[in-house]
Batch of 2 targets.
Target 1
Amino acid sequence: MRTSGILMHISSLPSPYGIGTLGQAAYDFADFLKAAGQHYWQLLPIGPTSYGDSPYQSFSTHAGNPYFIDLDLLREDGLLTQEEIDAVNWEAHSARVDYGFQYSVRFDLLYRAFLRGWERDADAVREFRNANPWVEDYALYMALKRSQDMRSWETWPEEIRLRRPGAAETYAVRLGDDVHFFIYLQYLFFGQWDALRGYVHALGLEIIGDLPIYVPYDSCDVWANPSLFQLDETGLPTGVAGCPPDYFSADGQLWGNPLYDWERMRQTDYAWWKERIAAAARLFDVIRIDHFRGLESYWAIPYGDKTARGGKWVKGPGHDFVRAMQERFPDLRLIAEDLGFLTDDVIRLQKDSGWPGMKVLEFAFDSREPSNYLPHRYIRNCICYSGTHDNETLAQWLAQTSETARAYAAEYLGLTEQEGYAWGILRSGLASVADTFIAQLQDYLGLGAEARMNTPGTLSDRNWSWRLQPGLLTAELAHRLRRMNTMYERL
């Protein structure tokens, strides 16, 4: 089936309280997708964010971001009052997401909701805990972080840092109020998520979720499962993840995520990964695995190095991992994010998996050599993107790319000033043979550098903070998108 969709994260929705949430603006966006003839809403990872505000650096691979809990829905449920919500000066922080501001005000409001709801909702919370056993470690982890001034777990007292016998139980009692608070936040998040997803499905739409291949060192996942990662006896990493030096970066990229102990994972038949994917499958209809090439081989950098230069390629689990996942989840739909440096082995793994790879139009027009991202090289079993969250918007790319690349794109795609170059690129993606076409919402809106979601390798308050302004999702825009989807048989 030929389909299309739009990439926009929840944080970018124009909710009234400084960051997008699972409230009315999310329902309105689903209505827009339906009117525009789209089939997919693609999101970035939805977990709680940590240092740098990146959704790809989350405290938990299972938990939902408390910032996305909608305050108006809590008011309707009797957990907050409008006066309490209005006491915060939201307007001063509305144009872009201010994560520091959100941290300073959100948890106080959510704690008020917890005090009103914990006993009232006791039976429902008990059912939630039984159905989601991961929440116990997560809530204890977050309560411990709060008690330790949010410091990373390697600085905690040794008995709980290394989870000595009895330590977790002792701290769970000592920090019981905060443990209950973080459990209740997840109960609220998943209640609102399930309601939104049910609405999306009722419209005939589906959600594509994003699963980062790695988890951060400062996460519940590493603290609670140290034997699954390449750590020493003190709990510190022996190697970390990144990318090698290339044309774009002489030092490579030093991500810093701890590396998996894939042999240990194999011995357990990838039980941790199976649990992780099962949890994602309960949230999303399709799952995009970020940095898929790391399953074939990964760039291992010695812990403590300041750049990625000293790393080396190490074989990953490859076909054995794919086999295990496909046996456990025979009907699961996955997207392999196969961008970056690809070897024949990586290409073979992606093809053998049967999972569709990605084609990014912004990568197609480097005139130095023929590109596999040119539409005439596509196969049906792929996902064509105008650009991803890590790329420039189309308007920004057209303004900043070389004149040679722009001229090449114009000639190859038949771009004209009358149609608009950005719209011509979008049209070409929709017209391609790819089964699915996804564009960032910013590209349909014609937004430039001010709307870029993320610039990789940089730490900036411009990253992850773009917000859609009210009134831009017009009936005229929906009609134009629907007409194009009709033309290229993607309804």
Target 2
Amino acid sequence: MGFTCRNFISKWRYWIIPLVVFLYALAVLVFVPLFLVKSVQDGFNKREQEILIAGVFVGLAIPISLWEILQHVIHYTEPKLQKHIIRILWMVPIYAINAWLVLLYPKESIYMDSVRECYEAYVIYNFMKFLLNYLNAEMDLEANLEVKPQVKHIFPLCCLSDWEMGREFVHICKHGILQYTVVRPLTTAISVICEITGVYGEGEFKGNVAYPYLLAANNLSQFVAMYCLVLFYRATATELRPMKPLPKFLCIKAVVFFSFFQGVLIDILVYSGLIFHNTNTTDDELGVSKRLQNFLICIEMCMAAVAHHYSFSHKQYINEDSSQNCCQAFLAMWDVSDVQHDIQEHLGIVSSSISRRIRGRSMYNFARGSDESANLVSRPSTSAPTDMGLYQNDDEELFMKYGAVDNVRNSAGNVDKV
């Protein structure tokens, strides 16, 4: 009997998908009739019609995403890449279920929206890590960028000084994206506190409520993250070409950034009166702007699920010789130790950078030259000493710890100049 059980478990790849499909179909077949019966008894009002239509799209989006997630779990042959892909793919079910539950339980919308907002920051982080892991597996990314042409800033930040190609460029892009992972959950927590205390004022653009200020903070943070992501893509487009990055970039921007600005636009249109709000409606517990935003998200997640299915396909990771355990693959995507490490690194670098700038020192200690390619080629083959004597102060030691300073390269650059 024990052997039969072990044999059955070892063939999990063959039965896990039919089992999930069966459970999902069973849940749909039980829930939908119950909802329809209750709606008919209550008179099937406009709000319930919205919930039903939105639920149909959510019901189509979830199995498409779960299918792709399961396929990645089954063919978990590239953990450093697929762990982040699976986390990204979870975005569609989380967004869809969250938006639908907000329509269903409007009074708890502020708490459910907090989950979605925090996860959208998590998705940006995982997309950044996916790109970095892919590039670092193929090459020495920083050394490769050092010999590439300078990437110029684009409008509206074209007046900024260029970020030196190489380590400085990678680190500024990385931490420019990572700051959104810190700012978004923080502003979300503040919005929940403000809602509880009655000073949030969602959808109101007034000076005595917190909503416009938190909106401005989120907008600025998201713009910085998106800008860094675009610059990073421009710098590495050639290296990323084998993995077809453009559809992936568009999927992330469409779901995260478009849904955010869509919500802002709807709030502005409702506040200005361009979208009519009937204040006499008794069943409008949620507000027309939030109802419209969540209804549209339910529909959009169905399209996003299809786009993710093709953009983050599992097919390139199929390897029949791999013996990856499903439990290990499942547990790996919930291991957030990498997130904790990167946030600690980000906070350490930001705090030290502020300290250094107060004292009039630059953040990065790079040997600059008019010809980066020539400096790299002419660098001596002998390595400079790497003992602790190279650190002139505690800040430089901290930056070396976090990978933001390369004193060895500075020493070699100075030898070249001499």
